[in-house]
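Appendix B, example 12.
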Amino acid sequence: MGRVVVAFSGGADSAFLAKVALDTLGPERSLAVTALSPSLAPSEEADCRALAVEWRLRWRAVPTAEMSDPAYVANGPDRCARCKSALMEALAPIAAAEAATVVLGVNLDDLSDHRPGQRAASELGARFPLVAAGFNKAAVRDWSRRLGLRTWDKPAAACLSSRIQYGTPVTLSSLRSIAQAEAALASLGLGPLRVRHHGPLARIEVEPSRLGAVLERRGEVLAAVHAAGYVYVTVDFDGLRSGSMNEVLPVSNPR
């Protein structure tokens, strides 16, 4: 592609893509851009900044405006498409100035879930080099480890809006509550985890091996989640899984 703008969220996939783009094309022909949004956890933004310094990425941050889109705020099953459209609107002028192609860290495993954002990004000109190269998540992690990247085993961290039940509006308040609750629970050593937002109810997902720890630290867990604004606190005994909010959609595979 010659010149690329990497959508850089700091996760294992986009970090691997940004580092390989830098190593392959050099800093003059590769630019990592982090979209600043209320749906990006503060810890993830901080890690993007840290990685840019550590790896000497040519990097910048740009705000996105998905919260001004009523269709995004309404939080229907196409929310991800509205988000990726906002991302591409922010990246397009940067890519034009760079005479570059926008690339996203989508891998083969991502193609099996309900992810309308991928289609929206592709229709707006983004490309997916990891898919083209045949990389699934395991390959991304394996090659990241071989390259000595500290992100090789970084837990997946989808945008905070993905924690909100479809049909429940996305608000700044709900995003702050999710971020606060997840950060507090992570500080208790319970990560990786998700706090799924169902209005006043928080549904906690952790690895099955951590369920006992959640119950043992019940008081601390309750205090942390109540402090984030939730009235009710539940633990999901199905455990942590990607895209659990999609399980209610018709396209989901029944368990």
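Strands lie at 4-7, 30-36, 59-63, 101-103, 193-198, 201-206, 232-235. The longest strand covers residues 30-36.
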